[in-house]
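Changelog excerpt

This revision adds worked examples to the README so contributors can see how folded entries look when concatenated. The first example is reproduced verbatim below.
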Amino acid sequence: MRTFTPNIWFAGDAEEAAELYARVLPSTRITRTDRYPTEGLLPFQEQLAGKVLTVMLSGPGCDLVHINAGPEFRPTPASSFTVTFGAADDPGAVAALDAAASALAEGGRVLMPLQQYPFSDRYTWVEDRYGVSWQLTVAFPDAPAEASIVPTLLFGGPAQDRAAEAIAEWTALLPGSEVVRTVPYPEATGPAASGAVMFAEVRLADQRVFVMDAGSAQDTTFTPAVSYQLACPDQAEIDRLWTALSTVPEAEQCGWCVDRFGVSWQIVPANMDELMERPHAFEHMMEMKKLVIDDF
């Protein structure tokens, strides 16, 4: 289990989305599927008994967990995934990017058209039919040319110009984290102030992450539809991260919390699979806010 794993909430179509992503994203495959139990569910979950609960995909540099649930949450472009298909001079990478852009845009919408930009020889930003946003590109200048999937956070709306603050907090909080590089806005750009984060690459625990302040006005921000799971070695680490990150009491549920920037986290034990094999584990988990290992 990775320490840092993005989770995406789907309205009953997690399997369908996983099959699409495994088909069009580079070197990505479905590695595991888990099902809801048949008892111990909350009333709103009863129709899901025995159905798929989560689907895990493994991609280049990033795992993704799909949560099969209801229509309560929908992703926004504030939480996207930047997918690099390879080098700009690799015809195969360009063809794969173009094919993925077409497949992902079907039934969705194009946020930035497929073309050359100052920062990439070929790039597009699409929101797919499930609401998930993808930034598809060939390798950025001076960046690794191999395929990769990188979680990307856009600070806009109520979180505007808070990217640097979040980066400082998260990298200090998560062991093994570091700021790889930061590019500031040289002057005020839309709602972004001069010196705000135009682009940053950070490593949060074992995951490469991109972070940006929005350079154009945003009418959406982070939602629980994309959350970031943190796997902890023991209860002390769960307690430490929970105390630091949970700032919205009404959002606390079975390991989920929301920080002061509006970003959702799932703070879980690293041996979660083992704990979930215990009798009535799912029922016990649903009764918790912060997860307590001894209560499973």
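The second example, added in the same revision:
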Amino acid sequence: MKTIWIVFQKEWVDHIRDRRAVLSAVGSSLFTPIFMVAMVFLMGKTILSLSEDKPEPLHVFGQEYAPALMQYLEANNIEIIPAHEFLVEDVRQGKVKMGLIITEEYAQAFREGRPAPLELVMDTSRQMNLLLMSKVTQLIQRYSTQVVMMRLMARGVDPSIMIPLVPNIHDVATPQSSALIFMSILPFFVAIMVFSAGAGVIVDTLVGERERSTLEPLLINPVRRSSLLIGKILTSFVFAMLIVGLSLFVFWLGFQLVPIEESMGLSMTLSGVSLLWIFLLCIPEGMLAAVMQAFVASFARNYKEAQTFLAILPFIIGIPSAVLGFIPNPTDLIQVAIPGFGQSVLANRILRGEPVTPLEVGVLLFTTLFSALFFLWLSIRSFSRERILSGK
């Protein structure tokens, strides 16, 4: 242990002296939470502005053929704007959000009681216009339903036969869980940080020392290579945890300073205790990240190759966390037991205010530490070979 501590102190001092590397790591740790807070704020402002009860513009060509429909749309906060015959091209070019084309055939079919044709012109690839598209489509469907009911009543038929089901929606989502959709990417960012923050330390202390020809004099000392490697891994682990902790603190601070609730129009709080629990879950994950990085770097032939390999590793681990929102109810103990993914599952639950059982934490801790010990064994074996000096 004394040897490991001495190696750790030496590597820590050497890395801290590299101001560019430290500033780069700190800068990235600040950029990620600031970017996320800004993204949540801007998305909230945009959605809130779109959901405000104000008239939405709808460009209509041939509005004179459907005066009743136009009155119905205007009564529901739709501003009717006359359009010319090139309406389709205007929507395609983004000059117009949405268009409605009504022909003379509509008026004749409506008078005769036949299905009256309408042409809705929209570009569903423009996400900012999806709310208007959905609103206009629903209004036209509601108008169509009302016309059907009036025609049935005129013929002495009870219109309620057209409504066999009346679903009552009971939404059990809390304001916190509803707002979580804006923070669902947080576990992915945390996983990326855990597996990337300490990569620079590993590359420099293993591959960098080999290229600087300082690794061989270090290895000829009467010290076990495993102690040297563990000391280097410990340096990477501590540095990564400091960066992750700083990032989570800045993220929490951003939610305290930026008026997130005002921008979103609903209650959205971020507890410092929740982020502390997420940080504690990251500690065993950080151990696994450090030993995996050491194992990968031990096979790299040069500095650039090591950087390339270790740049891919965070995304391999983080991709399952990115798709967490698309997995229905990931509560299976087997899913929680997967290192990396399990941390994201529990972090997601903590953010939602849902319970996390000691069994789940214990199983995840066991599998993560077991995986870390396995990769540590592989790393020590690789570091003990002579190829570590040549990289070949």
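Reviewer comment on example two: The longest strand covers residues 56-61. The chain has a mean pLDDT of 79.
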